[in-house]
Design goal:
Length: 371
Amino acid sequence: MAKELIKGNTAVAEAALRAGLEAYFGYPITPQTELLEHLSARMPEIGRPFVQAESELGAINMVYGAACTGKRVMTSSSSPGVSLMMEGLSYIAGTEVPAVLVDVVRGGPGLGNIAPAQGDYNQIVHGGGHGDYHMLVLAPASVQEAVDLTVLAFDLAEKYRHLVAVLMDGSIGQMMEPAELPPMQPMKTDIPDWAVRGTDGGEKRVLTSINLDPPAQEVMNLRLMKRWQEIEKNEVRYKGYYLDDAEYVVVGFGTAGRISLSAVRAAREKGIKVGLLRPITLAPFPNDILDELSEKAKAFLVVEMNSGQMLEDVRLVVRGRKPVEFFGRMGGVVPYPDEVLTEIKRLVDGPLTTEGHPRDRWLARLSETIG
């Protein structure tokens, strides 16, 4: 199929529909509203349910109910809207039903602003509501990748009966790029054997996340943990650039990773042996490749559009074996490639240290720049 120039939010919405999305429930919030708007026209057009709920709380609980029927369901929102969904996300995880969430991140905390940011990392990768579970998290760095990962999200959700989040910032949601959309998939006709069912079809099945017997709840938690181990074994995804001979490694996801690639290429032109590791699955995190790089590289630079949230996951893997530095911009400020290049040069020029926290050193430098 030919590529077409398309906005990120619209591309994700159309990709979800073509991947077999059977029902959508959501609430408008910038910078993801075009996603909802596109589906508000397209879903009824082909006879599929679309509901603009009264709130994000209503939307996520509608997703929960529809997911229990075995349908391909999705919601989308942006940072504070996703915060409101946390209880429902935990119910979905506790009931072991598949669902897809798209989070188009904006600046925060609080209502913040509508500019692109990556401050939802902890909320999505290490949060997702109360209890012992993980969400599988995919982080695109382009409109095409957002399309591809949206399709993948539905497949993974069904494969593991799991929550899958597509985490992208407002830049990707709002930018227009050439992208190839997937072909329209036929609607499913079968009903999963785990889905809710009334008495007409045989034995009644009821799905719920409540389990008042602690030992039984622990067995369920153990089942979730074993499923997560399987996901960790089979579903880690990342892209590496110039890593074969890299003496220095930049780690960045999404737009920050994309910007970092421009800086890495500029550094290569100056003879600096630097590479980029761009995680695509933020959960499960690409620990093995990062651990391998920790044996070869001299130092690491983590680049994010937040105050250093993925930074902690990188430091956990590196375990103090090599220096780890950090560069971030917050509140919706997008870094320039030249800024990242400056930080790469700073890494090369040294001095390198494993003492102290890299966030403290970054804060001191940023304070001198912006006051």
